[in-house]
Amino acid sequence: MARAVVALIISIALLLSGCRPAPAEGRAPDFSLPDLAGSQVSLRRMLRDGPVLVNFWASWCPPCKRKLPELEELHREFADQGLTIAGINLDGDPGDARAFLAAQPVSFPILFDARGTVAATFEVRGIPASVLVGRDGVILLRVVGHSAAGMSQLRRAIRDALEAGR
After folding, report:
1. Is the pLDDT of residue 7 over 60?
2. Annotated catalytic residue: which of 47, 64, 97, 133?
3. CA 141 to chain centre
4. Is residue 164 pLDDT above 70, yes or no?
5. Is 19 known to be catalytic?
6. What integer is the mean pLDDT of 83-91?
7. CB-CB contact of 163 with 135 (8 Å)
8. How much is the pTM?
9. In sequence order, what DSSP letters do the residues of 18-82 get, joined into one string?
10. Which of 89, 127, 132 is closest to 109 using CA atoms?
11. I need a surface site. Which of 67, 70, 107, 132 has the fewest CB within 10 A?
């Protein structure tokens, strides 16, 4: 039921915001969101360092809670090679995310999208949702949900992007 509510909220946000959704393939829309410290972080800026794995999650989402530690592993494995992981939290109250992260910290950037506007532009239909964006801004892979197969796909696509200089 929680997924249905998130999908509905995201759909409404998309309609109200007038934002254009990201195509299944093609260029990722740029965005700017506040991080834990309140500083604005943009996708365009993160892409300067290499590919970016954007992950949409919420503290109330059980699969998201299982995926975050695995994303932390990916971050530790690939950050030195140029990968940036951006966790985009969809909690209505950022305090919920902060409380969750106090118990389960991660070392990659966490950004807040309480209204779901960025999630809507990325056509997020369920969470957790991961979108790998190449350095050139092209969407390389989308993975919805959490599974061993999905994490293998992400790891393989990240390696391929880094090896190709994307």
Report:
1. no
2. 64
3. 12
4. yes
5. no
6. 98
7. no
8. 0.84
9. TPPPPPSSEEPPP-EEEBTTS-EEEHHHHHTTS-EEEEEE-TT-HHHHHHHHHHHHHHHHHGGGT
10. 89
11. 107
